C-alpha cells in the first residue's frame, strides 16, 4: 500500500540524549513536513522540505534537526538542546495539488 | 502572508444536532482549501477539499463551500454522531513556485454527547 510511515509509535528519551524519529513515504511526493502537537493544541511546523537535499526551518526549529538525503525519507532528530521535547510528532508528505498525507505519529516522552 | 482562522473550541453538541465550524482565510492568489480530521492518538486524515471558488467539498455527511467573496470555507453537517467527535483542522495551499507550503488553522475540538 502507498502511504507514509512513522516509527516508532512511542519513544522515551532520557535527559541529555538525542533521538531520531523516522518518517518514510512511498508516494513519490517531493514535499515533506514535520509538526509538533502538544496536548489539546494545534500543529506547529518544525521543518519542511520541498525537494531532496533542501529543507527550511519552520516556526519552532530550535533544538531540532533534519536531513533529506532521499526523496522517501525525512528523519527528525530531537537534540538535547530541545528543553521540552515531550509531545506528539507528526510527519506529512504533500502532493502537487496540496493534499497532505499524515503518518500515525510518534509520541515522545522524556523520562 | 497566508493564514487560516478557525472557530475556537471546544465545541460540544448533542447527537443529531446541526454543526458549523467556521473557517476564514487570508491568501495572496487562489488557494485550494481543505478540512482535515484527527481522531484521538492518530494523524490527520483528509475529510474534504475544494480547489476553486463556489466548489463544494463533501464527505461522510460533511460539506464545505469555497466562498471567495467572504474568504470562507465553513464546515457543516446536518446531524452529528458520537463518532464525529474529533479535532477538525482547516487548511489552505497555494502553488507558488519555489514557496509552496501548507497553512493550517489551530484546530477545533468537537465533542458529541449521546
Q: How is this structure best described in words?
A:
- The complex is a heterodimer of chains A (111) and B (114).
- By secondary structure, chain A is mainly beta.
- Chain A is 0% helix and 51% strand.
- Chain A has strands at residues 4-7, 10-13, 19-25, 31-37, 43-51, 54-57, 64-66, 76-78, 87-94, 100-102, 106-110.
- In chain A, the strands form two sheets. In chain A, strands 2, 4, 5, 6, 9, 10 and 11 form a seven-stranded mixed sheet that branches. In chain A, strands 1-3-8-7 form a four-stranded antiparallel sheet, with no helix packed on it.
- In chain A, a hairpin with a 2-residue loop joins strand 5 and strand 6 (54-57).
- The mean pLDDT of chain A is 94.
- With 114 residues, chain B is mainly beta.
- Chain B is built from no helices and twelve strands.
- In chain B, strand 5 and strand 6 form a beta hairpin.
- Chain A binds chain B through residues 6, 31, 33, 40-43, 48, 50, 90, 92, 94, 96-100, 102-105, 107, and chain B through 32, 34, 36, 41-46, 49, 51, 89, 91, 93-95, 98, 100-102, 104-107, 109.
Helices and strands, with pairings:
The complex is a heterodimer of chains A (111) and B (114).
Chain A: E1 4-7, E2 10-13, E3 19-25, E4 31-37, E5 43-51, E6 54-57, E7 64-66, E8 76-78, E9 87-94, E10 100-102, E11 106-110
Parallel strand pairs in A: 2-11
Antiparallel strand pairs in A: 1-3, 3-8, 4-5, 4-9, 5-6, 7-8, 9-10, 9-11
Chain B: E1 3-6, E2 11-14, E3 19-21, E4 23-26, E5 32-38, E6 44-50, E7 56-59, E8 62-65, E9 75-77, E10 86-93, E11 103-104, E12 108-113
Parallel strand pairs in B: 2-12
Antiparallel strand pairs in B: 1-4, 3-9, 5-6, 5-10, 7-8, 8-9, 10-11, 10-12
